[in-house]
Amino acid sequence: MTSIAKAPGKIILFGEHFVVHGNRAILGAIDKYATVTTEKINTENILISSSLGQASIQKDQDVDKVEKKFRPFFYIAKQVILKNNFDKGISIKIESDIPIGAGLGSSSACCVAAAASILNLFDKSDKKEILELSIQAEKTIFTNSSGADCTVSVHGGIIEYQKEKGFSKIDIENELNFLIIDSEQVHATDKVVEQVKKFKDENSNVFSELCSEEERLITKALDSMKNNDLETIGKCMAQNQMYLEQIGVSNDTLLSITKEIEKITFGAKITGAGDGGCIIALTEKDNDLSEYVNTTKYQTHQVSIQKTGMQVFNT
Ligand code: PMV
């Protein structure tokens, strides 16, 4: 049997970084996907192939000794093999149209799709088990992960997420559309999260005030989403961008992209860790952004929020 799972990437509409410190964040699943195809094989190895390379790893290898780019997938395979007392190995093929290291949830979507696909080789699994396994897998390379990215990839749509309370789905009737502009500066989430922790330690009062401001902003943004008030959502995004600038995760390139794109959209901000990665700008589906898209030196993606999260198939 071949098991195939598909999981969406994400954008963070509000609250990145603050979510790591206990605040709420609002995330949305986008129509860009990681697809993972797995099969049981007759050797005792775990075979991994992706655009980052290929590996054949003995299944009793220590997870820590596995190269970082393969580690989450090896971890998932090993956990599922142990749980099922399986005496052979698994092949894992990872394909994705989500840009890597850009803040669009590529690694989480790959972990979710891998967990769903590998669990499905053995037994029926539920979303809860898939989510827990994918978060643990992501933690093998990024210990401070809030779990928000994997959660939205599993469940789809728009979610409100808080580390202590988990997630709830936000029901909005209208489609939300975004233009993503990729600064093509690859960022390292763990490095930027560490940098924000340092900022928090050195400026605890400022940081705590920003956390409260962000909370108020999210309440306002949620109301405007429910009312499909794109103008207010856009203004909230621009305000959130200012908070991200204050905690030091923006840079000159991100700032200049934001200033340019907000002239022709409802509002724009960093999505994800920042210090590179992508800017998201809120648009209307029929907004003609072709002049910007055709003349900017950056890669752009027009995306909409996807109601469906991860899906699994057998062939
Ligand atoms: O840039 P990404 O996709 O890795 O997003 C990270 C979001 C953070 O809030 C900075 C970290 C987290 O785990 O939530």
Show the helix and strand layout.
Blueprint: E1 2-14, E2 24-41, E3 45-50, E4 53-58, H1 71-83, E5 89-96, H2 106-120, H3 127-139, H4 148-155, E6 158-162, E7 166-170, E8 177-182, H5 189-202, H6 204-226, H7 230-246, H8 252-261, E9 267-271, E10 278-283, H9 290-295, E11 299-304, E12 311-314
Parallel strand pairs: 3-5
Antiparallel strand pairs: 1-2, 1-12, 2-5, 2-6, 3-4, 6-7, 8-10, 8-11, 9-10
Helix pairs in contact: 1-2, 1-3, 2-3, 2-4, 3-4, 5-6, 6-7
The structure holds (3R)-3-hydroxy-3-methyl-5-(phosphonooxy)pentanoic acid.
Helix content: 25-40%
Count all strands and give the number: 12
Count of individual domains: 2
Distance between the termini: 6 Å
Q: Which parts are unreliable, with pLDDT below 50 for 5 consecutive residues or more?
A: none
* CATH architecture descriptor name of the largest domain: 2-Layer Sandwich
> Which class do the helix and strand fractions yield?
alpha+beta
Strand content: 25-35%
Major sheet: size, sense and barrel closure?
A: 8 strands, mixed
* Outline type: globular
